[in-house]
Amino acid sequence: MAPRVSSLAVVLSFLSLTVAACAAHGEAGPAEGPPSPRLPAAPAQEPRLALAALHPEIADAPEATELALPPNAAPAAPVSGPAACPSEMVLVEGEYCTDVKQICDDWMEPPRPDGVGRCRHFAPSQCVGQRVHKRFCIDRDEYHEPGDPLPKVDVGWLTSQATCEKIGKRLCYESEWNFACEGEEMLPYTTGYAREPSKCNYDQKQLLDHWGKPIDHHKTNADTEQCTSPFGVRNMNGNVDEWTYRDVTNGQWRSAMKGGWWMAARNRCRPATTAHDEHFHGFQSGFRCCTDAK
């Protein structure tokens, strides 16, 4: 029989590695991480016109005008309501802020020198960037296999991207994910300005069993009905970490993980983890898909 693993040193070592990977890099933003340039926000196969529509800041690039509509062509009127998106998706439309200032007025514990920490309550958010109109569809729930009520986990960025494309969708951009989570009010948490672990699945304290193995705490959507964003998207904070296509934060890879998982970490709308490459996958990694709205 294999010897029982009960060493405190092993458990502490595991927790140290877990927190370092998923919490220390959890507040990545324009001022954090390697000073590498931001990668293009769209996959290579995406039409340039669609990229310009999602990112107006590059709309004046020469490539963006090559696919412009003919002078006499009237743009199609957008479809509103449920018909704009598949039934399992939510329409997200409104004015997204490109840069937000959020100040914590009640910390749960003293933040680190780099500002990372859990905030019990935030002051009202301030838009210090530009307002950009966005319109897209996003999955109401984290991706799960047919017949399985639990979100799919232990998937990497490349697998997530391929899965979305296989079902006629695409991986969400980081900026789209932000907007679907926070709404036009730029909420720090998907449920508001206060941290509410009673509504969303985070701040779980027992992360390891007595063998030192991670305990799986991710839940079904039915278990977290109150963890809903202003647009009606569920479980965007906590539960599982979600892969996105990075177009906001700095990083070496195309990948960014959003929302946090069930441990006590960032678990907010804006922060992202960009330290994991596109091949990384873990017991907490999942995703959801997006599409353009009709």
Brief overview, please?
The protein has 294 residues and is of the alpha+beta class. The protein has helices spanning 8-22, 48-54, 62-65, 157-166, 174-182; strands at 89-97, 100-101, 104-107, 119-122, 126-127, 131-139, 170-171, 241-245, 255-258, 272-273, 285-287, 289-292.
What does this structure look like?
The protein has helices at 8-22, 48-54, 62-65, 157-166, 174-182, and strands spanning 89-97, 100-101, 104-107, 119-122, 126-127, 131-139, 170-171, 241-245, 255-258, 272-273, 285-287, 289-292. The strands form four sheets. A four-stranded antiparallel β-sheet has the order 1-6-12-7. Strands 10-9-8-11 form a four-stranded mixed β-sheet, covered by helices on one side. A two-stranded antiparallel sheet has the order 2-5. The protein starts with 7 loop residues before the first helix and ends with a strand. It is 15% helix and 17% strand. The protein is an alpha+beta fold. The chain is globular, with a radius of gyration of 20 Å.
CATH class of the domain at 90-292: Alpha Beta
Count, helices? 5
Amount of beta strand: 15-25%
Helix content: 10-25%
Mean pLDDT rating:
79
Written as H for each helix and E for each strand, in order along the chain, the element string is HHHEEEEEEHEHEEEEE
Q: Going across the major beta sheet, what is the strand order? A: 1-6-12-7
- CATH homologous superfamily of the domain at 90-292 - what is it? paralog of FGE (formylglycine-generating enzyme)
Radius of gyration: 20 Å
pLDDT below 50 for ≥5 consecutive residues: which ranges? 1-75
Whole-Å distance between the termini?
60 Å
Helix-strand makeup class: alpha+beta
